[in-house]
């Protein structure tokens, strides 16, 4: 009984093969030829970059006492590095004391001026004495303003001893180490935001008129394909490189520096008749497509291919929009053979 079941199973497996080889109905999958808008394209190299990529430098001179490690994630405003601030704090204390002294002298001169003006009403104070006191009062007011300004400058420098993140990101490079002395403008760390990405690509300048902001272009990398909108187009070349730059917004999370291929149109979009690429049968006598008629018989027609976009390609020949074309099972199909539509 067991052997009988095995024989029946083997026969069931061999029947479709025998039908395909000797004229039986062959299982196929179908699609339809359709009219669509398409344009010839070319692929150019592009690179994933971050729109927020900054080298942060020291804004005051001093010794580094703290630097964030590479790989540290920070938010906007977080402290990435600190510079020793002891001399600046001492200078701030000194200026605060000078302000107190200047305020005391100003109060004294204002009181003196009031007293002399009262005495002048009874001719007990000279006019020159009043003028001198008023002049000294004005000088003291100016001195107080200068000292306050100097203190604000020192407080600003104290704030700059802390290097903070201007945007959220990751520390990807530590140029200076804790303990080193840095000058104004010395690079300390590099900060990159991996969440704000775009693709930068350059294409021949003659094709810039076919790309506009808002267009969606294809990106290919590592056998994957994405669609990204064009953010901006910079159509300015030079004598050495006749190319223009285009930047595309990238929503996917890709590593900064990833190389991609950007599909750029090289002509205006036009209306074409297209079929899936899987419908093409390449043989020694040329390129053909199998069309399934209403009676489910296959008919082989010769076609000429044109431009392509993704999984679709332009064809010309005795084929019309709406014709059912075979996309699976057409490798061993013969003209006039009956087919069994699957799926």
Automatic annotation (TrEMBL):
Signal peptide bounds: 1-20
Organism whose genome encodes this protein: Wenzhouxiangella limi
NCBIfam families: RND_mfp
Sequence similarity: Belongs to the membrane fusion protein (MFP) (TC 8.A.1) family.
Stretches assigned to the YknX-like C-terminal permuted SH3-like domain: 272-341
A Pfam family annotated for this UniProt entry: BSH_CzcB
Cellular component terms (Gene Ontology): efflux pump complex
GO MF terms, alphabetically ordered: efflux transmembrane transporter activity
Name of the protein described by the UniProt record: Efflux RND transporter periplasmic adaptor subunit
Record keywords, A-Z: Coiled coil, Signal
Coiled-coil parts of chain: 92-119
Keyword Kinase (UniProt): no
Keyword Ribosomal protein recorded: no
């Amino acid at each position: 009984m067991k052997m009988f079941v095995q024989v029946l199973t083997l026969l069931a497996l061999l029947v479709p093969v025998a039908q395909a080889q000797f004229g039986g109905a062959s299982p196929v999958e179908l699609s339809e030829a359709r009219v669509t808008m398409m344009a010839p394209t070319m692929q150019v190299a592009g690179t994933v970059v971050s729109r927020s990529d900054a080298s942060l430098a020291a804004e005051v001179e001093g010794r580094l006492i703290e630097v964030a490690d590479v790989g540290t994630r920070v938010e906007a405003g977080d402290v990435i590095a600190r510079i020793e601030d002891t001399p600046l704090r001492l200078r701030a204390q000194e200026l605060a004391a000078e302000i107190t002294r200047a305020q005391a002298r100003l109060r004294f001169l204002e009181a003196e001026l009031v007293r002399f003006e009262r005495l002048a009403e009874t001719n007990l104070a000279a006019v020159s004495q009043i003028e001198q006191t008023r002049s000294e009062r004005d000088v003291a007011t100016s001195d107080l303003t200068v000292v306050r300004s100097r203190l604000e400058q020192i407080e600003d420098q104290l704030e700059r001893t802390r290097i903070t993140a201007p945007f959220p990101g990751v520390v990807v490079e530590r140029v200076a180490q804790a303990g080193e002395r840095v000058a104004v403008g010395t690079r300390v760390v590099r900060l990159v935001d991996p969440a704000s990405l775009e693709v930068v690509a350059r294409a021949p300048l003659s094709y810039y008129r076919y790309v506009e902001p808002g267009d969606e272009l294809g990106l290919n990398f590592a056998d994957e394909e994405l669609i990204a909108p064009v953010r901006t187009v910079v159509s300015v070349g030079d004598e050495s490189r006749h190319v223009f730059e285009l930047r595309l917004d990238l929503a996917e999370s890709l590593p900064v520096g990833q190389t991609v291929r950007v599909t750029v149109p090289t002509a205006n979009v036009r209306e074409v008749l297209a079929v899936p690429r899987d419908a093409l049968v390449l043989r020694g006598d040329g390129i053909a497509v199998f069309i399934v008629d209403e009676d489910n018989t296959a008919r082989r027609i010769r076609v000429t291919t044109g431009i392509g976009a993704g999984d679709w390609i332009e064809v010309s020949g005795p084929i019309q929009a709406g014709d059912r074309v075979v996309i699976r099972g057409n490798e061993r199909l013969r003209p006039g053979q009956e087919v069994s539509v699957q799926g």
